[in-house]
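Render Pentapeptide repeat-containing protein in 3D.
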Amino acid sequence: MGALSWNQWRLNYPEVIPDLSNADLSKSDFSTANLSRANLRGTDLSWANLRKANLHKANLFRAKLVEVNLSGAHLEKIDSFWINLNMANLQGANLREANLNQADLRNANLSGANLYRSDLSGSDLRGARLRMSNLLQATLIEIQLSGADVHGPALEWQICAGPI
């Protein structure tokens, strides 16, 4: 089922909350798919294409998204405690008010991402790219930032976000 068919099905059955928990969807193409409110708990989406996908309020608890393409994706208010986004492309993604507590974001590309009011507590951002990211009012308690690229305007968030 392609994204077009999937999105039509979601329009026809808006009351259904898709349960794709613990599925192996690695290397799948969900570009522009509407996965809002979907249960993706424990799902393996590694190497998948989720470019511009809608994951608003999706449950991504313990999901594996290694090297996934989430560029331009809508991830507002996702619940993703312990998510693995190692080397993920989140360039320009909207992660406003996302729960990224204990997330593995090593070497992830978060350039231009909106992380306004997101919870990144305990997350590993070593080697991550954060240029031009919006981290205003983000919770950044006990994060790891060694080797992260935070040059340019992204430095302003250190003043606004509180302790690191």
